[in-house]
Amino acid sequence: MPRGRGSGKIRRAPPPMERPMRGRPGDARHYAALDLGTNNCRLLIARPQGSGFAVVDAFSRIVRLGEGLATSGRLSDTAIERTIAALRICAEKLKRRHVILARSVATEACRQASNGAEFIERVYRETGIALDIITAEEEARLAVLGCHALLEPGDGPALVFDIGGGSTELVLVDSRGEVPRILDWHSARWGVVSLTEASGVAATVEERAALYANMRARVAESFAPFAKRLRTPRGTRRLLGTSGTVTTLASVHLGLAAYDRSVVDGLIVPAPAMREVSQRIAGMSMAERSQVPCIGSERADLVVAGCAILETILDLWPAERLGIADRGIREGILRRLINGRIL
């Protein structure tokens, strides 16, 4: 049976809090998915199209909701204010687009924070958005549902991963059939925010190398229970990543002057090239990383942790290539809302 962090048999998440909303008669049917993570707030609004959907509006902002959570155990007042400001924009978009059904989810930061439930209540009072704090299992399922179409064809199980702000989800899937079957999963405690805050900063080249090695060791330890359960697959190993880390590093690999989803989403990159980019970025100073296109000052402090997590995943599942997905939880939610529960 599939297992996850905490061991034991996998448990089904409770039914999602799908919130009907008032659309005007005659409006096109618009659905919405909102993903509030430890680092980002993301919204997609879409209408059904064929067997899928077409995006009609979107929003994404780095809010750093989990900033300081590792040390305080609470969501800070400053982080809450930043996040609610972003959610007010989302609420206005939901209203303007006359969304008929929406689901809004919160992940690791709200799962861990002692004031997570209080924050959820305040969000509803001030924005009308009903956030559902989902389990790590549900988070993994939604990510797979949203991005599995980008898996390379092949036999045997594939590994899908999502590097978040407060955790990293690893999901082993059997991709035969229209919808993948989850064989095993693991939620590791380290994401780019939590790992960065736990690791500190480094000034010299030597200190940066030591810090990076320490990051990788922490991540490897958190992956250990999952690593023990993995078996060498038949055929070629397939690997697909969905996260800001992999899309950013893929952009750096391509030398893009600015992020371009149409180029990055669905890209297949040689794994050694992603290692080279990761190690090069990890060796840079904060100021140097800030000057790299597609990283900039907003991601300069967190990207090294993402590099460490990615390299450790490549150690765990040494595939020759890495698939890049700029899609995940929101797309998984939309597929469920439009097509019914299919994973």
Mean pLDDT: 91
Which CATH top level class of the largest domain fits?
Answer: Alpha Beta
Tell me what portion of residues adopts beta-strand conformation.
15-25%
Q: What do we call the CATH homologous superfamily of the largest domain?
A: Exopolyphosphatase. Domain 2
Integer count of domains? 2
- One letter per element, helices H and strands E, the order comes to EEEEHHEHHEHEEEHHEHHEHHHHEH
| SS element count, helices | 14
**Derived structural class:** alpha/beta
Helix content: 40-55%
Number of strands: 12
Rounded radius of gyration (Å):
19 Å
Cα distance, first to last residue?
16 Å
Q: Assign the CATH architecture of the largest domain.
A: 2-Layer Sandwich
Largest sheet: 6 strands, mixed
CATH topology of the largest domain: Nucleotidyltransferase, domain 5
Gross geometry: globular
Low-confidence stretches: 5-17
Key features of this structure:
12 strands, 2 domains, Nucleotidyltransferase, domain 5, alpha/beta, globular, single chain, 343 residues, six-stranded mixed sheet
Question: What does the secondary structure layout of this molecule look like, with pairings?
Answer:
Elements: E1 19-20, E2 30-36, E3 40-49, E4 52-62, H1 69-72, H2 77-96, E5 99-106, H3 108-112, H4 116-127, E6 131-133, H5 136-147, E7 158-163, E8 168-174, E9 181-188, H6 192-199, H7 205-229, E10 238-242, H8 244-254, H9 261-264, E11 268-270, H10 271-282, H11 286-290, H12 296-299, H13 303-316, E12 321-325, H14 329-339
Parallel strand pairs: 2-5, 5-6, 7-10, 10-12
Antiparallel strand pairs: 1-5, 2-3, 3-4, 7-8, 8-9, 11-12
